Amino acid sequence: MREKVTALTPPDNNKLKLSKIKTTAAGIPAALSSMKHGITRMGVAKTVKSLMMVNQQKGFDCPGCAWPDPSHRTTFEFCENGAKAIADEGTKARVTPDFFKKYSVQHLSNQSDYWLNKQGRITNPMYLAKDSSHYTEISWDDAFEKISTQLNSLQSADNAAFYTSGRTSNEAAFLYQAFVRAFGTNNLPDCSNMCHESSGKGLGATIGIGKGTVTLEDFNKAELILVIGQNPGTNHPRMLTALRDAKNKGAKIIHVNPLPESGLNRFKHPQDYMTANLKSTTLADIHLQVKIGGDAALVKGLIKIHHQKGGIDESFIDSKTDGYESMIESALETPWDVICMDSGLSRQQIEHAGEMCANSNATIACWAMGLTQHRNGVTVIQEVVNLLLMGGHVGREGTGFCPVRGHSNVQGDRTVGIWEAPSESFLERLEQGLGFQMPQHHGYDVVHAIKAMRKGDIGVFFCLGGNFISASPDTEATAEGMQKVDLTIQVSTKLNRAHCITGKEALILPCLGRTELDITKDGEQFVSVENSMGIVHSSRGGFRPASTHLRSEPWIVAQLANATLGDKHLDWLELTDNYDNIRNLMEKSLHGFEDYNLRIRNPNGFSLPNPPRDDQSFATDNGKAHFTTNPLPNVSIDDDKYVMMTIRSHDQYNTTIYDLHDRYRGIHGNRRVVMMNANDMMERGWKTRTIVDIISHFNGQTRKADQWIVIPYDIPSGNIATYFPEANCLVPLESTADISNTPTSKWVVVSLHESNSSQEEE
Ligand code: SF4
Questions:
Q1: Pairing mode, if any, of strands 535-539 and 527-530?
Q2: What pLDDT score does 761 carry?
Q3: What gap in Å lies between CA 721 and CA 718, rounded to an integer?
Q4: Whether the CB of 67 sits within 6 Å of ligand 1
Q5: 3-state secondary structure of 488
Q6: Are both 497 and 375 inside the same structural domain?
Q7: Is residue 26 included in any domain, yes or no?
Q8: Cis-peptide into 335, omega within 30 deg
Q9: What three-state secondary structure class fits 383?
């Protein structure tokens, strides 16, 4: 009999240690941390070999974020968090059938995400029978038999949903979407629905492409770089090298963030020590400590000053854009007191930054979740577009938009078809290339898929990678939905909470990692990925798989398709004998992938078409870049409430917890922490380590999470920060960004209540 499992991350009884906040990022501590993670998990030899292979032209792509590689590689092309991602995949620890015999699902659900991840690589396909409390081993054939029977017993193809995490390669993702569409649905929710969907929608509607327009080289040509709502020091660390190089070439950097992140303060490149260069580099020239949700007001202010101070590219505006007049009118009409109140910044601060924008001949704007995961995520990004279009800062050297992707192939997955709302032209091209009809009605994104599960409309939920339950908002609501599903299938490398919160029956299909050799009957195979700057390049594993039972993602998808549909659409099995076969299909089915098999063998891969970058053209309805006029969002909250944003620690990658040291912020051991403004704490009569319960408020609904330790932190008054996935249970399912439907994990209205057990001992 299966006992009740806990969806929420269990209470954290680790001791909280606080240390001094770091003012310099990376340096020797980063090198030591990289080695420590490597050697403790993989041993010396494998650590050295894998760190010399990662991000190299003949090596494997880092399974971490999607920051691009320079065309001229250095000996070591990795950062501390890349090293942790590799060590995590290369770990010697194993989760075997015996492990699952020992631990029930209920027991596993009571463990922390850190503990679950540390158990290591899953070695065999596993099955959780109905009402059973323990997973048991299953053969691959029996697993596919179960899935195909379940899929083919569904009333409609729309009673199934197929999730993708951003680590999936182009080849696996293309085959997956082909299978899902051959099966008859567009239910392809993916992790970008929860992260850069707002960027895709915001940019797509204004410049005609839902991707960034800069190259790595542009950073060396920029005069001004805006880094907004992003913490590259932890989430895209090699970006700090590009920022340092830009600074050394005279660029200015404006850092916009409610938190003073060390990564934008000073940077010390660990490899500099090898040349006895001990100097560190100050990165941000100014830090605008905006209130959570105050970015739109800030950018309106910058637009006003830019308009006043000049630097307007009139010939670009006249010839290449529309909508300028109404946009500028709305900005000029926006009162300064509203701008200062909403942004939490002084007019002087905004004027200083605005002048820097006006004086720059080449500006790049970078952003991440701090802009996308808000109700106005799409329109605030369009305000940033407005600001840069004023100076014609797109499609010229040193200029452009840079939404930085946090997952190594999240952009690639979307490009090759992981898209629940594909355009007609995209489906048409697929039909031509694949030779079978595509379902035309749009499918479920992440939030809609959860709602459909909660209504009992999803009989089969297939996840290609990821940790859906922990990455999603409203943890308990999502869990209730998933537990209504008849069969959930999780393709994974390591253990996580998605293996505990399952459907009535569940399967775990263990796959090869990015670092591992993928050998088929045609020999060693390589896959490809697309980085944040639209460069598609190859990735070759180099290590013996963690288990002989592991299979590649393309193989798993092909077997699934063949078992479910037979070969009437495609000869799925033949396609995975040699991935050139898959790429041949992609050449015929996708715009920009011509001569794919030839160009992917270029040492640095190839760039996909990017009209704004390539020739300052815009694939919009009228071929013009669109200025947009957007009202400011209402950011006022009741006096007894706070705005909470969820963040990552430095020892975390998405929902994967590598360790318990948020080194830059000086927070160690315990993750159930509330970073709060010291004056706000004093007002409540609270000391450091006071224990509180958090309640979120949304449309009359409340959600509660108990036992959080309050610590003073440099954050604007009325704002607090907590770590996800622990705080995701407070993010309402219905609270999403307009247009993109991205959960508002950076904007959650909460109240704080002193908990019965009031103080954590020192
Ligand atoms: S910056 Fe991103 S891609 Fe590069 S090594 Fe670090 S985690 Fe990996």
A1: antiparallel
A2: 54
A3: 11
A4: yes
A5: strand
A6: no
A7: no
A8: no
A9: helix
